[in-house]
Amino acid sequence: MAGPLVVIGGNAAGMTAAAEARRGAPDLEIVVLERGGHVSYGTCGIPYLISGEVASEGDLVHHDPESLRRERDIEVRTATEVVAIDPEARAVTTADGRRQHYGALVIATGARPVHPDIPGIDLPGVTSIRHLPSARAPRRILSEAPEPAVVLIGSGPIGVEMAEAALALGARVTIAESRSYAVPALGEEAAARVAQALGEAGVDVRAGARVEGIAQAGGALEVSIDGDRVPAHLVVLGTGVAPEAGLARDAGCATGAAGAITVDRRGRTTVEGIWAAGDCAVAHHRVLDRPVWRPLATTATVQGRIVGRDVTGRPGRFPGILGSWVSRFGDVAFGATGIDGAAAAAEGFAPRELTREGADRSAYIPGARDVRVTLIWDEDTGRLLGGEIAGSGEVSTRLHTIATAISAGMTVGELAACDFGYAPPLSPLRDPVELAAAAAVGDAA
Amino acid sequence: MAGPLVVIGGNAAGMTAAAEARRGAPDLEIVVLERGGHVSYGTCGIPYLISGEVASEGDLVHHDPESLRRERDIEVRTATEVVAIDPEARAVTTADGRRQHYGALVIATGARPVHPDIPGIDLPGVTSIRHLPSARAPRRILSEAPEPAVVLIGSGPIGVEMAEAALALGARVTIAESRSYAVPALGEEAAARVAQALGEAGVDVRAGARVEGIAQAGGALEVSIDGDRVPAHLVVLGTGVAPEAGLARDAGCATGAAGAITVDRRGRTTVEGIWAAGDCAVAHHRVLDRPVWRPLATTATVQGRIVGRDVTGRPGRFPGILGSWVSRFGDVAFGATGIDGAAAAAEGFAPRELTREGADRSAYIPGARDVRVTLIWDEDTGRLLGGEIAGSGEVSTRLHTIATAISAGMTVGELAACDFGYAPPLSPLRDPVELAAAAAVGDAA
């Protein structure tokens, strides 16, 4: 290409694209422009940085600009915000008024937290989890208050992970969830397992809650929830994120689901010379067979790799996502893959759904942990569409199994017949995933 | 059918067949004839009974004859050995000379340990793990000796599980393995991880060893291994098993792989009115697409279910096995699914094999455990043929994922693209299974 590869945004998608482009083009000039102060860090580790399970910010940083320059010949400019893209001139303008020419441009601007429109949302002590420095205030506030209290607005995975972190720092924790039950990213049965763990840990979970406002009270805050005034030193907003697609839109790039940047399966936007990847872009969904917006680090890195190849003349094809995610509260892990019953019904499937709970080992081995499995499948074809798991037993790798079965287009009956290994202390004769799949075909006796 | 259902053998396959037949035929007379003193127990739990992790024999027993009679109307006769089958008269003869007529006969006689032909093999203190009472002598000997010493001949899963049990009882443990490396049920790289754990636990592993004989010495035994005389209070033979197919063969049933009883995918033998299931019978292998002999509890229960249905007029089709198994030594679990490189080559595939080791969480989360993954695939088609895992991280459910991919006929590239969930403390951004699959297609950077 004529001119350098310029990447806007230096985290999962952007840095993966830059690194992959370097592998394909040893001599290409590569410039990464990052608005923040860090690149290439583990955003998903921030709750564990706040809790202290991860000791320092530096532990979350995979690469710094200096090592990227030295080891990979990638030029990284932090604190450099791109304010405009000129696709015809193939140049970007940064906040300091300088222009940077590009041969190829990768937009990897990520997503931003959405703040609800309630009074007091901008008060100090009200925060959301976004980038590395956003861990500092929560950790400081929780460490300094003698009896810290936290209100979490929203009970998505980040809200629940923040609840764990706050408890680890000795805080009293209240969760205000506007939906009718906590952890609404899961169906009710899987979510109930997480709610049970939250309750056992002493978290005050308020579902169907309306947050009326946040006010200062003494040296701290007070959150009005359904008329109650809940004291808090820290309020964390887990009220969702939105794609950072403004720059791309202004440059003429089409946007799609949730306003995210439209890309094809090679990662190309609708504007010549511009690619996009990660939380700012749509991604093809395997079950829905169309682009959706699911901001996840796994999707971002796969898209980054595809784009890094495409810009260096090695076109690939994004394989598609299942939106698989997993999270943890204390001893209980939970997550989902594929689509849920409501999405399946909206898509024209004839969804069936079933939940089974099993132990993670033979009944006679002490120390069993529970695994609650929900499967969603299409009644007409038997095709597996989605799965959810929650429990104190191993969750994430069981979700891998369900994701594999969905990817393969398996029916629930085929999943039930996969022949899993068995050893009394490791895996029961019939794994909870197998049992749920067998129950789906009336074969779990 | 005219006459009762008679089942020979009351463990995994036999009792599952009986229970499933009961579900399909509420009024059928069902008689189970068991040579031993117990039915329906967890054979695979015996090492944990010896170690004391399982407190008592009774804990391993799922059902006793009385409860089976009361709750399921199944008549169980223990200590009742069948010595002959008369297929024309549809009757069996038991050791006490009595005849039992059958309308349908299920042979579920299991497998027996193979004892090597070495001097001293029949001495007291030399034993193998077979049925529930076989736990008693090892546990007594190891508990009574002040400084117990054990020699294990063979390092298959049972040998390794017995090593763990013996260590738990404070024994000094020597393993004599005739093959060139320990745990030869795995390829060398996975096996090396188990050998490392055995070594760290102080087990004296002798590979490529020849056991010349066993002799009495003082109040204990002495095992000659490559000219060394190794003292032992207990010698456990883990030198393989063979199908108990004699009765069936004498009745005219054809036998196949390893001398096991030939059955079709409905579980029927070649003799009218006789079915077989479990360790005494062959089972269809999905990758090899032909019957093999793989004595495993998982296979036995699935075959038992298929047979229990078939004899009550609900024919099914055995889905086929992958020979998946998993085992444990201390903190390290290990296992395999599908076929290994040698089997793949013998089968006419163009096998490729690759091993990758990864952590079970993000690098910045403390306490990472290791997962070593070996994948075997066909170079010409990319089709996944087999997998092995060993490590201190979660093994069994990762093998489920590989088994699912093999069952689905996936290529390694398709496995790499399955979209697994990620959370820093639970599952790394790229799971070791995904990384190994990606490396197989040159995509693991």
Task: Describe it.
- The structure is a homodimer of 445-residue chains.
- With 445 residues, chain A is of the alpha/beta class.
- The first copy, chain A, folds into three domains: 5-112 and 241-310, FAD/NAD(P)-binding domain (3-Layer(bba) Sandwich), CATH 3.50.50; 126-237, FAD/NAD(P)-binding domain (3-Layer(bba) Sandwich), CATH 3.50.50.60; 333-440, 2-Layer Sandwich (Enolase-like, domain 1), CATH 3.30.390.30.
- Chain A is built from 13 helices and 25 strands.
- Chain A has helices spanning 12-24, 46-51, 57-60, 65-72, 136-144, 157-168, 188-200, 246-250, 297-310, 341-346, 396-407, 412-416, 432-440; strands at 5-8, 30-33, 74-77, 82-86, 91-94, 99-101, 104-107, 111-113, 126-128, 149-153, 172-176, 204-206, 211-217, 220-225, 228-232, 234-237, 241-243, 274-276, 283-285, 290-292, 325-329, 332-338, 351-359, 370-378, 384-391.
- In chain A, the strands form seven sheets. A five-stranded parallel β-sheet of chain A has the order 3-2-1-7-18. In chain A, strands 9-16-10-11-12 form a five-stranded parallel β-sheet, covered by helices on one side.
- In chain A, strand 13 and strand 14 form a beta hairpin.
- The first copy, chain A, starts with a strand and ends in a 5-residue tail after the last helix.
- The mean pLDDT of chain A is 97.
